[in-house]
Write a structure and sequence with these properties.
Chain A contains ten helices and nine strands. Chain A is an alpha+beta fold and about 350 residues long. In chain A, a hairpin with an 8-residue loop joins strand 2 and strand 3. The chains are: A alpha+beta (about 350), B alpha+beta (about 375). At the B-D interface, helix 8, helix 9, helix 10 and helix 12 of B face helix 5, helix 6, helix 7, helix 9 and helix 10 of D.
């Protein structure tokens, strides 16, 4: 099934031009409609919840394929972060063709409503910042703080005003004012909240891994085709050293991210595995993007060239859902949880 | 140290410190008046003819040129101080930058008296801007492979056909010093048959097409020449001497402070964060970055001193550009490691905005004016290796 | 990803975790008993035959080999867990390391039944040690240029003359699998005419001269062969097939955890400092370093999995060694940036001692078993570039 | 004069084998004797103080030449640190042929003696640690703390017991117990104490700069001579890139260190200039030593080869007299002294 799903995504992508994001065209709604029609925005979501079935790894494969294609659609957020969180919290999942995103930064507080609706209904107060696909998503999963612990709330945000902000690739990252909004929600444990943040980080790591792999492939291809001083770039030893260095980074990231996904699928705690994946993937961006642009030369620096669709995303994705530095601290602290003499056992337990 | 890399020390110049203070005062007043705001990499992206004219009025363009061409007969050390202050402030200097740094000196070196008298005073006034017409779509680092050609017509004028790319700000400039093939390519003598022409960009047959860079900014252009008739007296230097002339020109442009200060505004913004936090690890990062900057400054100053002595230190200049542009990009990583601020042009945090500007321009630092691989080849040659 | 670099995931192995726990318990007991102390890079410098024999007794050498040769018919994943635990503890494993990792598998692949039956059980018992006889004083990375030669005498035995260098611990080892030229060099077929001989280091005519490394440590040797008569049946594999055999052997040796864990004891010592300080920047450094290590581990594990499936993933193995050995040295810089501890073997601070050991061994990490430039060339070939 | 001095040092060095430091042979006393006899251990010290005259720059040239020659003698400590400090404090300088070193780490306290000798006599209490050439130096300048401020004390340590410790190159770096030792001394201002530490750091930077330059020269030479695959190493583009990178580091270090020396000779405050020089020189060690060993291959990793005499020194010198990290903090804080908006003016004032 996974190969078929990936082939379908590729076919759909192939019919779409690289999408140039602007303030006026903040997402590729046409691509989304096709993906939704093919049931691909519901993969990994059980059929009884309105989804298309399939496993986490299928959803990951879709997210990776779309990331490598620089697709301007909120599929990573929906399939890997928001929908699993809604299902785990036993809330009603919106239809998979209505874009769903997540805000986990926690500048929002939730108060239980006292109108008799019970603990399942909350009033949200505050502003969700740096919201992926703000203004595009129709529903938003918000991780809010409350006097009784973290709350996962599901908010209908269709038509709600958002501030304009975008990441380096132009993907919408605006803020939403949620002052006094009523929403269905569920209490989480602190650990569940941490795991939600970790899943978000892992989603970005999956995207990074796929994008970096594609950047390598494009660069190898370019080096094989572009002639300089009478021979292909790829025949120059200096360029070979650069491509091999890129390949080293990409291969290491791919193995770690892939293993992290599998560990989570096996039911292991995602926090340290996701932290490691996000740190490793993020730190590869500097090398891979730099060398890709260096090998491509000036042409790769232009808007017409495809390269920037991925390098700009990578420069932002490494910062999003927690920077490398933030996750590195989490990983470092987590590995020392049983004391410094237990570092090695801790390392071998992560993955 | 091989003699090719040795640079004699410079003695501090009181005149340079004097003009530095004047520029600093000027910039503070302009910033206070809101004439400009600080940005990263403004010597590529900060086009502001009014600002350029102000600098011209104050005598800060064409500083080292003879007075009879509108220059001010000041030292390279004084000019160094002025350019460095402008870059550190992130001032909008892109309009005149190439003309003042490179094209003017090129005219002084190779131009006819008429060319100099006509053009240099206008450059020094901040009113006449140049682009570099070297690269072509297929040439890449192999400049000898260019295909734009110029042939003499019956009137003795040049008829130019071809296209140049990566011409910074051609849409706001007046002239392009254009490298053309004036004799057919000869595989046995790849560097022969090239010449430089002084091309007025308003001539019929010239089309300027924008090439937007990855963040959508319009700084570069493609300049297409379609049977453009360039007057015969607009040859720059000798026919057939183009390779030698561009090599000298490139050496000239490589050692300036714009090769390590493009991202200085990011350092300045980071310093504000460090001063607030007082965090020891951040202080150490600021110190590390500053030490690298200070070393580059000494190298660049020493090259300015060598220029004052009439030398052409091409190999150290290549080295400064390699080390300096690597540093410009490394600044981003150093800051990213030290703070926890996502890069975004829309960030409410000025540090986030500076990171975003620096990152989006980063691929250019080590490509423009000769890739670092080419530069390292030049340095290796200077070490006696090939 | 090019298929040459793709590595299938491995499923966790309960058997591997079981033996990992056993090794961990064993090591804790040995450390507590003071049998060894933790050091950096002990797979080169920690020669301790008694320790090697203990590992042999427990069945932790020759783990994947057939039982009839003294092996234990366990998986590469299980062997991986054992080697990794030994390296992480900085245990003295140098005596048997080459024999267990490389020479034994080489014998299994190419050896005669007599050779296997004679030698493999002794390796698995931790009693028989090997050195790699490939490099020569003038060969460097160009292994095809070796000049040690072997000619058949009238009895059908080999007469060997020449010298091998960088033979780790030849002074404590029993055999050298020696690459020799058995036909004259042919410039048109540089890789032809080479063969491997199984040479008993106690044979007359062999001299072992120490080559001390820069810290004065004696791990390497020059092994000189002066008319050494090697019995005819000590040819390993096919005559003339030496190039192919060493290439396969090198691929085998490149992917193990010793290519990224040589400086793990430094990380462990650093972690103690971080736990004491709780400093956020140090925690981040520990996290960054750990993330790199975890990625390398996954790569290395996947290669172990591929070996279990009978594959020979030579290109990913070269890649792991390049990335891993770069990491081993980078650990030093990461730690140095995060703490303020001078490196000295005489330091009262264990972190200062670990830094010193790691630094003094650092040049070796990216040279031994093929330089990183050679490895990157192999990776580039895997990308389809030449 | 400077060229003559350097030529004399070179001639003397040329007659000496590279000195292998061991616990039993902790310095090259023969070389020292020759240098002293030629008056070279008194350069930069006025003749009226028993020295050979000359300027700071002459002393720097001697130190640089000896550093490039891996000379195992305490000339840097004597000429650039201890002797100038003794002279500035108006204490009696020992004869220049008696090795003089300095200990600035400040684990020693000084108490004014109350026996009527006046403030010029102090009792030292504590242990001087990481003392360069401990056991070799006959006199030691100690920067001690006291209730009334920093004290510069001059101690006769000939024959005094030292603990054995050495840096990575085998240079003695032991400790001296100074419990109750009487010494001549002078009060310093905090600023003078800082400047003394800075001069020590600059001395190490001078040594590093010279050693790194020599390492580059050896590596270029080796790459030109060593054949691999039928041509010199230096013809391989990958090696050329490595050598150019080394040259970039070495040239940058040389310019900064040289300018710092000149600034100090002009009378500028040495602290930030020395801090920058030490940080920059120290950070070049990683790149230059790594690439030098990589280009040299296994042969450069052996004790017989000359390379390690310098790379091991460089690995230690970058840590000594304050690590890069410590000096980077000093530099960062110093540059912010007038507030963050004055960073640029501060940078242009350092040098």
């Amino acid at each position: 099934m996974r190969d078929l799903v990936v082939a379908t995504v590729r076919d759909i992508l192939a019919a779409h031009e690289p999408f140039v994001l602007t303030r006026e065209r903040p997402w590729d709604s046409g691509l989304w409609a096709e993906l939704a029609e093919a049931g691909l925005t519901g993969v990994g979501i059980p059929e009884e919840a309105g989804g298309s079935g399939g496993e986490l790894a299928d959803a990951v494969a879709i997210v990776a394929t779309l990331a490598a294609g620089a697709a301007a659609v909120p599929v990573a957020e929906q399939l890997l972060v928001a929908a699993p969180a809604v299902l785990a919290a036993d809330l009603d999942l919106p239809a998979p063709d209505e874009p769903l995103s997540a805000a986990v930064d926690g500048a929002v507080t939730a108060e239980p409503r006292d109108d008799g609706d019970g603990p399942g209904s909350w009033t949200l107060i505050g502003t969700a910042t740096d919201v992926a696909w703000a203004g595009v998503a129709q529903h938003l999963v918000v991780l809010a703080g409350s006097p009784v612990g973290p709350v996962l709330a599901l908010v209908d945000v269709a038509g709600r005003e958002t501030t304009h902000a975008a990441n380096l690739a132009g993907e919408p990252r605006g803020s939403l004012v949620l002052q006094g909004v009523t929403a269905a929600g569920a209490l989480l444990t602190e650990r569940q909240a941490d795991e939600l943040r970790a899943r978000y980080a892992l989603a970005r790591a999956v995207q990074l891994s796929a994008a970096l792999e594609q950047v390598l492939a494009w660069t190898v291809q370019y080096a094989g085709e572009r002639q300089q001083f009478g021979r292909p770039l790829g025949k120059f030893q200096a360029v070979q050293m650069q491509l091999a260095e890129m390949a080293g980074e990409v291969t290491a990231v791919a193995a770690l991210v892939d293993s992290a996904v599998q560990a989570i699928e096996r039911g292991d705690s995602p926090v340290l595995a996701a932290a490691a994946a996000k740190v490793r993937a993020g730190s590869a961006v500097e090398v891979v993007a730099r060398l890709a642009h260096q090998v491509h030369g000036a042409i790769g620096f232009t808007q017409e060239h495809r390269l920037h669709h991925l390098t700009r995303r990578c420069w932002s994705w490494r910062d999003e859902a927690g920077t490398e530095t933030a996750w590195a601290r989490v990983l470092g602290a987590g590995l020392l949880a049983d004391g410094p003499d237990a570092l090695w056992p801790a390392l071998t337990r992560v993955l | 140290m091989p003699s090719t890399l040795t640079l004699a020390p410079v003695v501090p110049s009181a005149a340079a410190e004097q003009v530095r203070a004047e520029v600093r005062e000027f910039l503070a007043a302009e910033l206070a008046a809101g004439t400009f705001t600080t940005h990263v990499d403004t010597w590529l992206s900060g086009v502001d003819p009014a600002f350029s004219r102000k600098l011209g009025e104050r005598g800060w363009l064409g500083m080292t040129w003879p007075r009879r061409y509108g220059g001010h007969e000041r030292t390279a050390m004084e000019r160094y101080a002025v350019t460095e202050e402008l870059l550190a402030a992130g001032a909008p200097v892109a309009a005149h930058w190439i003309a003042d740094r490179q094209s003017g000196p090129n005219l002084l070196r190779y131009g006819t008296e008429a060319q100099r008298a006509e053009i240099l005073p206008r450059i020094a006034a901040g009113e006449c801007y140049f682009v570099i017409g070297m690269s072509e779509p297929d040439s890449g680092s192999d400049l000898a492979s260019i295909r734009t050609r110029a042939t003499r017509n019956g009137d003795g004028d040049w008829v130019v056909n071809g296209a140049k790319v990566w011409t910074s700000n051609a849409h706001t400039s007046h002239y392009a010093i254009t490298l053309v093939r004036t004799s057919p390519a000869d595989p046995a003598h790849r560097h022969a048959g090239l010449s430089q022409l002084l091309v007025d960009l308003s001539l019929p047959g010239i089309t300027v097409n924008p090439i937007r860079i990855l963040d959508g900014g319009h700084h570069f252009n493609e300049v297409v020449f379609d049977d453009v008739v360039v007057p015969g007296d607009m040859l720059l230097g000798e026919e057939g001497n183009g390779w030698h002339q561009v090599t000298a020109e490139l050496a000239f442009e490589r050692s300036g402070p714009e090769r390590f200060l493009s991202t200085y505004p990011l350092i300045a913004e980071f310093a504000r964060r460090v001063a607030d936090s007082g965090d020891p690890a951040q202080l150490a990062t600021l110190g590390r970055v500053s030490a690298r900057l200070l070393a580059l400054r000494q190298l660049s100053l020493r090259i300015a001193g060598a220029l004052d002595r009439g030398e052409l230190p091409d190999i150290p200049a290549a080295l400064v550009k390699d080390v300096g542009t690597t540093f410009e990009a490394d600044v981003i990583d150093e800051v990213r490691r030290a703070v926890d601020v996502p890069a975004s042009l829309d960030s409410p945090d000025p540090l986030g905005r500076a990171l975003a500007e620096a990152q989006l321009h980063a691929p250019g630092y080590t490509l423009r004016g000769g890739t670092n691989e080419i530069l390292r080849g030049i340095v290796a040659r200077g070490l006696g290796l090939r």
